[in-house]
């Protein structure tokens, strides 16, 4: 990062919170359970987001040990390096719009799975984190389970990956440092495969 003059992340935290969500389509018990979990995790402000997005944020929070998000950490680090140009690949409004088309049953299942995991003890999250890291190093696709929820996978990963691709190609020309979540990388519609289709050579550092 120190050799770049621009940092690009998924979204700028707190940017573009001017959007309208469709009415929450979770069952009332599931909705209250999600709200309680968000409050318990210190993420109460995220209740305004669509359930799938707030559940995904809850999941990422647990993988980060309840600390700052990857975007927040990298932005702070970029400022320490003197990098003043920081931008996002998309806005929260775009992500919210994508999620409006997701099947209700898929959202309910995803939220339920995240909340069930949230109730597990800390060693559970260490195991999840280790699975992701080991899978990445071994070249395994750890997004297979999410692809069982096709409309949610499309909204959270595939559609966003394709929207980001032209920006990533341009970023490579300007020498920017780009950081996205690990789930966006593997699979047939992951960023690595999409970049290879554009002629890029992919390797692990």
In what range is the share of β-strand residues?
under 5%
H/E topology pattern: EHHHEHHHHEH
Strand order of the largest sheet: 2-1-3
Give me the secondary-structure category: mainly alpha
Q: Calculate Rg over CA atoms.
A: 17 Å
Count of individual beta strands: 3
Q: Which spans have pLDDT < 50 for at least 5 consecutive residues? A: none
Q: What's the total helix number?
A: 8
* Share of helix, binned: 40-55%
Largest sheet: 3 strands, parallel
**C-alpha geometry:** globular
Overall residue-averaged pLDDT value: 84
Distance between the termini: 14 Å
Descriptive labels:
single chain; 205 residues; three-stranded parallel sheet; 8 helices
Question: Overview of this structure, please?
Answer:
53% of the residues lie in helices and 5% in strands. By secondary structure, it is mostly helical. A three-stranded parallel beta sheet has the order 2-1-3, sandwiched between helices. The radius of gyration is 17 Å and the shape is globular. The relative contact order is 0.16. The model has no long low-confidence stretch (mean pLDDT 84).
């Amino acid at each position: 990062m120190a050799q770049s003059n621009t940092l690009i992340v998924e979204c700028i935290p707190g940017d573009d919170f001017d959007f309208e969500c469709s009415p929450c389509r979770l069952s009332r018990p599931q909705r209250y359970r999600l709200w309680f979990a968000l409050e318990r995790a210190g993420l109460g402000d995220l209740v305004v987001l669509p359930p799938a997005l707030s559940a995904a944020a809850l999941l990422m929070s647990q993988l980060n040990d309840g600390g700052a998000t990857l975007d927040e950490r990298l932005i702070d680090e970029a400022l320490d390096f003197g990098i003043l140009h920081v931008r996002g690949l998309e806005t929260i409004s775009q992500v919210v719009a994508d999620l409006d088309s997701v099947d209700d049953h898929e959202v309910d299942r995803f939220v339920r799975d995240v909340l069930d995991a949230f109730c597990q003890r800390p060693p559970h999250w260490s195991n999840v984190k280790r699975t992701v890291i080991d899978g990445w190093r071994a070249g395994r696709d750890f997004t297979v389970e999410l692809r069982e929820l096709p409309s949610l996978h499309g909204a959270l990963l595939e559609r966003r990956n394709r929207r980001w691709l032209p920006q990533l190609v341009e970023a490579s020309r300007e020498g920017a440092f780009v950081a996205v979540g690990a789930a966006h990388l593997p699979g047939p519609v992951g960023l690595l495969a999409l970049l290879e289709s554009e002629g890029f050579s992919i390797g692990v550092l």
